[in-house]
Amino acid sequence: MKRILITGGAGFIGSHLIRLLVNKYPDYQIVNLDKLTYAGNLENLKDVQSKPNYSFVKGDITDVPFIGELFEKNDFDGVIHLAAESHVDRSITNPLEFIEANIVGTLNLLNAARSAWGGREEGKIFYHISTDEVYGSLGEEGFFVETTPYDPRSPYSASKAGSDHLVRAYWHTYHLPVLVSNCSNNYGPNQFPEKLIPLVINNIKTNKPLPIYGDGKYTRDWLWVIDHAMAIDTIFHRGRIGETYNIGGNNERKNLELVHTLCDIMDDLLGRAPGTNRQLITFVKDRPGHDRRYAIDATKLKNELGWQPTVQPEAGLRMTAEWYLANEEWLNHVTTGTYQQYYEKQYA
Ligand code: NAD
Ligand code: DAU
Prior knowledge:
The strands form three sheets. A seven-stranded parallel β-sheet has the order 3-2-1-4-5-6-10, with helices on both faces. A three-stranded mixed β-sheet has the order 7-9-11. A two-stranded parallel sheet has the order 8-12. Helix 2 packs parallel to helix 4, helix 4 runs parallel beside helix 5 and helix 6 packs across helix 10. The protein is α/β, with parallel strands linked by helices. It binds nicotinamide-adenine-dinucleotide (NAD) and 2'deoxy-thymidine-5'-diphospho-alpha-D-glucose.
């Protein structure tokens, strides 16, 4: 019997992780703490919400008394911390929100865990979920490894780097048992349509331009979200305390190549003539400080813990497009109201 706190469980990755853990470990109690920002959506968890080993708590990780009380009331065995502001473009418009949620929020959780676990850390785990963006930007060659020096270049990645440093500092200074993983770009069902892949799918569906930043040759390493959830499960249960693990899809694509593939899949799914959707591609103003290339070397995770991705990109992109077409109600709920305002401002 374990009691695990998942923060940010109503978001994209968190909801897939909760589904995996709730179904795989019926004897665990999974507590989902989420503020339900624009990115948090309990509809993502409809199929697990009535399971006896799952519960939801609405709250903010920056709220010191609330978090202190939550840790006092629940004797958590582990924390898997995903709650964060996660979209780079939003961090460029409003950096402070990212510092508060990602740095102050993480610090608050570390303090709560330390005070709840002080003197009886044996068997406890504070697992911090981070990003490959902390390593900065690669040229044409090379890969990020766990020892690559940090070089964050957006307010989002700087805030994630700050939180990673704090987590490791609590290991070295206070012996808080921590784990960190840094993952590449995730894709799959339930991703908020501000991110490239769901935004493109939604725009194709509604015949809107497909905005490509700069020259479209920026490169990302894409990972099927459930493969990420399985990596988190593996690291949480078998990772060496104090260690960092890189997680990646070994699946690099230039943005334009990726969007071409999506256009072709969507032509097929919507019964449009081949080449129709590619005509929607529109080059727009570049993202300031845009990182050129990310690529992860996940050898450590593979060699030490045996994890590797299971879903190939073409299959994963098709499953993703099919999911968005089959879940029109979900998409409609998240693209009305404030999404429209965000979209108009971002792509004006
Ligand atoms: P998301 O934006 O979809 O979800 C974030 C969740 O955190 C939302 O449910 C939101 O309501 C919640 N949240 C935000 N601020 C909060 C606060 N102050 N208190 C409580 N809850 C709060 O994000 P995601 O894409 O699922 O990413 C989850 C984590 O994984 C983040 O830490 C992110 O940095 C990291 N990550 C994401 C990716 C990716 O490709 N999406 C890749 C690597 C790492
Ligand atoms: O690498 C992991 C990171 O991946 C995570 O830490 C972040 O939380 C997640 O948002 C993601 O960051 P990116 O900035 O790489 O993802 P995004 O989907 O915003 O953009 C992917 C690429 O597509 C990037 O090069 C910018 C480009 N892009 C994005 C949008 C939204 C466009 O060309 N047009 C767009 O409209």
